[in-house]
Amino acid sequence: MTSKALVLVGGGTRGTRFRPLSLDIPKVLFPVAGRPILSHALSAVATVPSIKEVLLIGFYDDSVFKDFIAESSKEFPQFTIKYLREYQALGTAGGLYHFRDAILKGNPSSFFVIHADVCSSFPLAEVISEFEKKEAKAVILGTRVEAEVANNFGCIVSDPVTKKVVHYVEKPETHISNLINGGVYLFDSSIFDVIRSARQAKVEAANENPLVKNDEVLRLEQDILVRLAETDGFYVYETRGFWRQIKTAGSAVPANALYLQKLFQTDIDAPGLAKASAHILPPVYIDPTASIDPTAKLGPNVSIGARSVIGPGVRIKESIVLEDTEVNQGACVLYSILARGVTIGRWARVEGSPIGLSEHSTVLIKNGVRVQGVSILAQNVAVGDEAHIQNSVVLPHKEINGHVENEIIM
Ligand code: GDD
């Protein structure tokens, strides 16, 4: 029975592409659709009744997840949640090997490994059913992406009939397949035999070559999955549900839209989801402590954080507004992220550009120049009355007046 899920949460020295939003909050705790990114993965895990333990594995300081674990333990009493801290970044498989005793405690017949930074419909029940049907040792979640972006991911070649993985290449240089690694795996305990042999190969390589470090770092993709594809029992489950990565700060905007749409379709009365009206175009999430003037118009795909104040005549669309933010009369916020404590002056305009939900890049080419698709105002930025910010990123505590376009304001 699948009784555990391990979630790879990374650490502070990774997730740099999420800056400036990760300057004051770890990426996996950043709220999309009103909840931390990590919470969406836990909600998916909670749909599998046999899972009794969730292990978060990363190299953030222990204190980072203390409050999150306390709150999530109340929300998900069906499983215990623990944080296992790597003493340094051990790679996507090094931590699994380092904590193998904790993972194998209680003899789970199989366990999930989930990347915390994917935004997905997480079809975990379907992955389990494929695992059982094929009597597999490992099943990987696969998803199709456009050929032009496939090489940014792990690429899978599988038997079209049996779905057995026959070849795996991480971020190949030439096109191999547009079926890519979706960052969710179900393994049985024999995965540790494969990790052990990869570890052994590394020790031997280090003995022969002083340039190879004999450390505990192991990469699930290059060191393990490539080997696994040469054995029997490794299958892919291809999802047609939504899937994207949350890598850049801008990618939180399409992720917010996808999770809000999912919530709206599955539970229209979910706490925080605002009812449709002339001023609310669903889905819109509003924290119960936020104050919204009745003449403001919000949505679709908008999240408003705790204690934020949205003034009269304001228009907000396709955006994330975090806590303690103030958007004053007549201001307009489109395809943007306003971090904690941002103030937007009257009649100001903050805008990015529309990004397709299935597009895997948030950078656009505008008049031949690469620009940020999403405008991002970091913590405590103040935008003056009638100012205009377009396709720009503003770092914390800056004050902006006038017009800013295609810029990074440091
Ligand atoms: N515990 C731990 N330790 N977690 C880590 C470490 C580490 O040293 N390094 C990365 N992670 C976590 C990240 O936080 C993220 O959740 C996940 O592992 C994968 O991150 P990356 O190593 O940055 O890989 P990637 O996102 O470029 O690509 C991976 O994910 C794609 C799907 O999202 C690969 O597995 C690709 O093949 C895959 O398509």
Strands, helices and their partners?
Layout lengths: L1 E9 L20 E2 L2 E2 H9 L7 E6 L7 H10 L4 E6 L5 H8 L1 H5 L5 E6 L2 E3 L3 H10 L4 E7 L2 H4 L3 E5 L6 E6 L8 E10 L2 H18 L11 H9 L5 E5 L4 E3 L6 H15 L17 E3 L4 E2 L4 E2 L3 E3 L4 E2 L4 E3 L1 E3 L4 E2 L4 E3 L1 E3 L4 E2 L4 E3 L11 E4 L2 E4 L2 E3 L4 E2 L4 E3 L2 E2 L4 E2 L2 E3 L2 E2 L1
Parallel strand pairs: 1-4, 1-6, 4-5, 8-12, 14-17, 15-18, 16-19, 17-20, 18-21, 19-22, 20-23, 21-24, 22-25, 23-28, 24-29, 25-30, 28-31, 29-32, 30-33, 31-34
Antiparallel strand pairs: 2-3, 6-11, 7-13, 8-11, 9-10, 26-27
Structure write-up:
The protein has about 400 residues and is of the alpha/beta class. The protein folds into 2 domains: about 1-245, Alpha-Beta Complex (Spore Coat Polysaccharide Biosynthesis Protein SpsA, Chain A); about 275-410, 3 Solenoid (UDP N-Acetylglucosamine Acyltransferase, domain 1). Helices cover about 20% and strands about 30% of the residues. The protein contains 9 helices and 34 strands. The strands form 8 sheets. The chain has a 7-stranded mixed β-sheet with strand order 5-4-1-6-11-8-12, with helices on both faces. Helix 2 links the parallel strand 4 (about 55-60) and strand 5 (about 80-85). Helix 7 packs across helix 8 (about 220-230). The model has no long low-confidence stretch (mean pLDDT about 95). Guanosine-5'-diphosphate-alpha-D-mannose (GDD) binds next to strand 1, strand 4, helix 3 and strand 11.
